Amino acid sequence: MSLGQELAPHLPFLRRYARALTGTQGHGDAFVRATLEAIVAAPGDFPRDVDPRLGLYRTFHAIWSSANIEDDSGGGDAHDPEGIAQARLARITPLSRQALLLTAMEGFTPEDAGYLIGASASEVENLVAEALAEIERQTRAEVLIIEDEPIIAMDIETIVRDLGHGVTGVAVTRDEAVAQAMAKRPGLVLADIQLADDSSGIDAVKDILAEFQVPVIFITAFPERLLTGERPEPTFLITKPFQRSTVKAAIAQALFFDSATVPAA
């Protein structure tokens, strides 16, 4: 099997990680392209002593680190979305956010995450705790949950409230989701894909985004269906069955880059 064939199954998830790390599809995809270009240019430099997925993420991190995109401490307009994001980024080290996403969203062990960012397993665990604590201090929002499974919806609502956020409502169909969003605009949407009346959470989100912009986290048992590269893809995506830590990490990152998020007191 060629190196390209070994890496292909992991690319959708690297794109997911890159987008969550940078906060946008465009920036994330640009780093993934740069990673692939580096591998093609020097295939002999690709780490072959580890699992291909680890090697792929390791190469990505080398590209990410060399770019130094989070070293810009110049700030920016405090009312501009990019300025707000940069101000928040300046208060959290890049390693902390990487450790959080690698373990909570991508499912790497602390040992593997440590290999990727050059830290020990215990250091990774400390970095994760540091990132979560700082992000939670910086962000608060009202959340709309679109989920037709009562137990899952209750679990998500508990996670959201435990993080200090409010819940505008829980919708189980497309029409109900849109109606609730119009009645009380949320600062974040958590959306399942398949809803109670065979309607689509994707369609519900499209309807909502046609009216106003809001960060969205999709929840699905089949993430590869949304990571095809054939159309605009979600920046934040959670795979079912999910861990509570994964939901927390995704919420933190989604709100972290949203200019409308209210800074926590």
Structure description:
By secondary structure, the chain is α/β, with parallel strands linked by helices. Helix content is 54%, strand content 9%. The chain has twelve helices and five strands. Strands 2-1-3-4-5 form a five-stranded parallel β-sheet, sandwiched between helices. Helix 2 packs across helix 3, helix 4 crosses helix 7 and helix 6 crosses helix 8. It is globular and about 55 Å long. The N and C termini lie far apart (54 Å).
Key descriptive features of the protein:
single chain, 265 residues, alpha/beta, 5-stranded parallel sheet, 12 helices, 5 strands, 54% helix, 9% strand
Summarize the structure.
The chain is of the alpha/beta class and 265 residues long. It has helices spanning 3-7, 11-22, 25-41, 52-67, 81-89, 94-105, 110-117, 121-138, 150-162, 174-183, 201-209, 244-256; strands at 142-146, 166-171, 188-192, 216-220, 236-239.
